[in-house]
């Protein structure tokens, strides 16, 4: 029983590390996207795209994360992205990828 406990705990730790890596990769990709949008003269934030993201992730989620939980996760992810990368809207040279 203890071996299984330790194994599950280790799997959770590995998964948590993968989540952090995925968020960091997402921030790198969004940085690139925002720089392209700036060059094209487009708005950084696109509410229609955010709605599409929510719909796409809702369709992809098979649980056990509830729809409300998923909505909160997406909201936090979008808010985090805007907080972390917000200064790039005005000074893209600040980002060191």
Any overview of this molecule?
The protein has 97 residues and is mainly alpha-helical. The chain is built from three helices and no strands. Helix 2 crosses helix 3. The longest helix has 39 residues.
Secondary structure tally, helices: 3
Uncertain runs are none
Overall outline: elongated
Strand content: under 5%
Fraction of helical residues: over 70%
Number of strands: 0
Task: Give the class from helix and strand content and strand pairing.
Answer: mainly alpha
Calculate Rg over CA atoms: 17 Å
Q: How is the biggest beta sheet arranged?
A: none
Average pLDDT metric:
91
- SSE topology string: HHH
**What is the terminal separation in angstroms?**
44 Å
List the helices and strands and how they pair.
Elements: H1 2-40, H2 47-60, H3 67-85
Short description:
The chain is an all-alpha fold. It has helices at residues 2-40, 47-60, 67-85.
Keywords for this entry:
single chain, 97 residues, mainly alpha, elongated
């Amino acid at each position: 029983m203890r071996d299984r406990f330790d194994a599950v705990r280790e799997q959770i730790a590995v998964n948590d590390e993968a989540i952090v890596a995925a968020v960091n990769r997402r921030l790198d990709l969004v940085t690139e996207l925002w720089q392209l949008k700036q060059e094209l003269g487009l708005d950084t934030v696109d509410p229609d795209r955010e709605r599409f993201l929510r719909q796409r992730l809702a369709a992809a989620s098979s649980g056990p994360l509830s729809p409300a939980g998923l909505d909160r996760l997406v909201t936090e992810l979008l808010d985090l992205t805007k907080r972390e990368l917000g200064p790039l809207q005005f000074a893209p040279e600040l980002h060191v990828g």
